[in-house]
Records
---
Amino acid sequence: MSDQINEFRAYRSKMNERILSADNLVIKRLFNLDTNTYAEGALPTRTKEMLGLVSSMVLRCDDCVKYHLEKCHEQGISTPEVLEVFAVANIVGGTIVIPHTRRAMEYWDELQKNT
Amino acid sequence: MSDQINEFRAYRSKMNERILSADNLVIKRLFNLDTNTYAEGALPTRTKEMLGLVSSMVLRCDDCVKYHLEKCHEQGISTPEVLEVFAVANIVGGTIVIPHTRRAMEYWDELQKNT
Amino acid sequence: MSDQINEFRAYRSKMNERILSADNLVIKRLFNLDTNTYAEGALPTRTKEMLGLVSSMVLRCDDCVKYHLEKCHEQGISTPEVLEVFAVANIVGGTIVIPHTRRAMEYWDELQKNT
Amino acid sequence: MSDQINEFRAYRSKMNERILSADNLVIKRLFNLDTNTYAEGALPTRTKEMLGLVSSMVLRCDDCVKYHLEKCHEQGISTPEVLEVFAVANIVGGTIVIPHTRRAMEYWDELQKNT
Amino acid sequence: MSDQINEFRAYRSKMNERILSADNLVIKRLFNLDTNTYAEGALPTRTKEMLGLVSSMVLRCDDCVKYHLEKCHEQGISTPEVLEVFAVANIVGGTIVIPHTRRAMEYWDELQKNT
Amino acid sequence: MSDQINEFRAYRSKMNERILSADNLVIKRLFNLDTNTYAEGALPTRTKEMLGLVSSMVLRCDDCVKYHLEKCHEQGISTPEVLEVFAVANIVGGTIVIPHTRRAMEYWDELQKNT
């Protein structure tokens, strides 16, 4: 597993646990609801994870992008498909999305190597 | 056809024509590229239009939302599916997306009535 | 009651009902959670409503601003206090917040007249 | 003078006066500073107004766009120049800037007619 | 004092000094005005710092969040109170605020250790 | 050449090549169009690069800011001129632009040393 992937996962787990331990009911429910959002429904999880990815890209949140790239990878989404999600994000969100696309591409490549 | 739908389409067409008549090459190519982005590819147009819709919602652009709702409607996307796109947008983008969801729901309902 | 206040409330109620009738579980829970967020807790509702107002202003969501102005009004927040919330929003968010401040000021004045 | 131009100016003046009458020192100073920002300096006002315009477009603030279009018009900026500002805004900010470009184009055309 | 706190403060001071040394009048006045914004007024500094914190979170500016966390810490705001500010930010701004909440929580914990 | 400048350029080149190698037509054309946007036209490249810089600042994209600072440096823009671009960005975009201004100032100073 690459360093970048491990570091992202470890920090994310550690701090999510810390936040949840603080016992704020609204935050706990939001974290819960976040998980439910991507469950199978009228749309398959596979499609919803791409929706989460493109939203994270246009809002330019690198950590959210990494998280949804992991989920897209788990869902068996192919590299040409991921590139088309990147394309929508770059057209809708403009060239300010490009630096985030560079980091997303790098993270995606690392996920591919670590299957 | 409802007034809201007609007005949106008429203003959009009129002003797009006006902008293109100004003959700025970069803008003309961007408009062109925008159309290509949603063409069938590794992902079907149907999925891409939902990607366009969710991006427009989290970026809170009502006119972009209307445009992609029309395209989703043409692609035969169902109301429960559209609601799940709305759900992703509201969770990722927060409660500031709610007012845009109200206007999106209204526009979607008008599109359904006008099939 | 002023027309602007009535129209905002009527449209908001009508469309919230419509959205909730669509029975998407994630959206229903988010609407619920939204209400809980501003309940008395470690911080009083009064403070939380100002937090909601300033967040809505820097994110430039006019309908969210109106909603929180109503809540601030119910909480007995004074005009000089509201102006200080506006000031924080304008300094943090910049002059692009000014047009939203104009509409917020107008709505606040209407709320005062309708006590 | 077109209705759209008159309405924008009248509402802007009326509400700016109302806000300033509330006598919040931070807001008053920010309004003042805003005016100073575009004064002749190392860069001419002409350039600074285009900087204000492009910033307003990528941040998608229609009223800010109108304001800077008026200033650009006063500075004798030509239509092909304004279109190139629009082009930068659309490329940097993406297709979500297009609906704002439609309204900007319309306002610019009205300003031209009213010279 | 933790490394993270020291580094943040040192870089912030060094670069603020450098920027102010460049003697741009608008920037100098804005820095000044920024300080005035949080002074005691109709609202206490304590409340205003929470307004600054929540605004920084929904706008997803990590450095601004750190700065206001320091000020909230100085104002004696408790951990449950800070968590309620985080809750408002996450509900209003959505799950894209979560990664910023992780970093905010970590910084807050370090501030607590260094009292 | 400073480490920061070298690292930025190396990573940017490497990942742009990687993205282009993936052969997504929309992304390739957008990259191309991005270059054309800043070509001499009704407005000189010099002005357009300042438009790109101010847009990147208000949208708070550090990598985009670095890129346009390099281009502004190549165009012979002076430090007082760059500071006035920073001033417009800070007034329009608010104090959340300040942390990005700190990093921009540092990068600009490094570019000056490396002429």
---
Amino acid sequence: MSENVNHVLVEITRGGVVESLHRGAACVFDSTGARVLAWGNVETPIFPRSAVKILQAVPFLETGAADVCQANFNELALACASHGGERGHVAVARAWMERLGLEEGHLACGAHMPYETEAGNALIRAGEAPTTLHNNCSGKHLAMLATALAKGEPVAGYHEPEHPVQRRVRDTISELTGEDLAQAPVGIDGCSVPNWGITLAGLARGMARVADPRGLKVVRQSAIRRLRNAVARNPFMVAGTGRFCTAVIGRKSTELYVKTGAEGVYVAALYELGVGIALKVDDGAKRGAEVALAAILRYLEVLDDADWEALAEFAAPHILNRAGRDVGEIRTVAGWPHGRPQTAEPSETAKT
Amino acid sequence: MSENVNHVLVEITRGGVVESLHRGAACVFDSTGARVLAWGNVETPIFPRSAVKILQAVPFLETGAADVCQANFNELALACASHGGERGHVAVARAWMERLGLEEGHLACGAHMPYETEAGNALIRAGEAPTTLHNNCSGKHLAMLATALAKGEPVAGYHEPEHPVQRRVRDTISELTGEDLAQAPVGIDGCSVPNWGITLAGLARGMARVADPRGLKVVRQSAIRRLRNAVARNPFMVAGTGRFCTAVIGRKSTELYVKTGAEGVYVAALYELGVGIALKVDDGAKRGAEVALAAILRYLEVLDDADWEALAEFAAPHILNRAGRDVGEIRTVAGWPHGRPQTAEPSETAKT
């Protein structure tokens, strides 16, 4: 039996030759649950990491917690975010936390230096340590805490798998993806909440529901539309300066939602086509995942030539060395995704 | 025909399941040029990047330039280094530069923030920009500049492929690896000097010469021994605080030399066995390359149990999340490298 190896999607070049490469799998599903396109193995669970944040945020609205705490659109967007810890992100998080009557120590996410370089440098210059509010997941944690408060559930332990907040999240993601997460592998995410294994197929199905929520119960449709609209209204909130999610949503805010996750995951919801996309680069490299997602968006004609040019630093990056010389590229391999898509998981043997 | 895919060497786990993986190739050669062990494709050129620095430094000694500029052991070690830009590194580089009568602008490597976090933070706090001396390659560039000065060659353009300094480097590496680099693919490295494509087999052969230089001409033997001894005398110079190269050489300075290169490359020279090791992770991930090299060193019994424990943060790292919880591991896959090594390039089909 031959090993089932995902194909190379993205390659790194130097001096015109390939220096490194990124294998991965990707798929597009519609909101009926039907597979539209697939490349590689999309039926083995992967950890979606932060790519699943918009789904994790749904119970915050469905339970009424968002209304109880009078969440504004910036806070709703921050609930879906992996933000850069910039002044604008932290200010929104802080005001929300204070309105909830909470303190930094209530957030179980831990602290890390802001993703955004200047925000980090400002802390260093001021001799200050980052707090849990600078954590890229602080918005998600505030939404979870707000849900516990609104439901009268204990705040302590809100991040543990058996807490009602997390069980509600798990069940909601199960319903949206069509996968029973109670049976799924579970890992602890970088920010201490559980992250359940989901297939790329299931993840794409879930994102197709985000793209086209019409078949869902009304309260869920409303929750998804409010989250989509909040992100569209201020795409900065969902990522930040110099980030692909913010840049692409900024150009196409009424047409799509995209979200990155750690270890090479990306998802997208394309509203007009009513489809969801999910991909993971096998080795976890963000540089591979970003270029792969951009290429699929272009292949589906969601990005046109002008978008491509405007997003070139993410979609078709050149590698500049320390002296500023252009020494290589990050690009999709020839024929992908513009070649004939694979509609079943291929084996290496069957394909060349 | 089946695609020739390198095997998975290293996996990243979360919650006990595999989240991401790193494929790669590796080999061990002896100083007669014979292959001892090989895993995957070791006969296609890769860019060795900074892993080749000790070979790039050989002409600096062979030409007599090191003696002309009275290079001390710290400077010789820095010539082989990808250093952290720490105070100790920059001080050595600065004194050497000034003795050569040069200024920061003469180094073509460009500037970047120090690899070492505290060194970078110190610059940020002081409101200072990094200089070419903070560049991890500044020692290599000073050695090349010193060679040009000693030989009466132009300093300007010393980093260009056709400059005598680079041609001398190219020819020396060709001789040591047994590969004609004049015919090889050439890329521009991060620091602006040419980097030639070399097979992992050739790179391991070159490192075997470093491990056992006895068959070489006397001036080359002497050059290699002086570089080895310089690094052994102050392993901090070759990398720095919290770095695997420094840590492992620090424990075994009379027994081995190891060196990392960008995009997932690692080399080692094992003096007693008289062998060289070269490996590259396909996707370029440092985390994969480091764990793979440590595993090969353990397999060859160069690291014992006590070494393994002391080097665990590099050799068998656990992934701690933002809140300090142990959420996963970076580890070699079961059976590697302890399974039966492959002595020819395998195809995926032939192996499972």
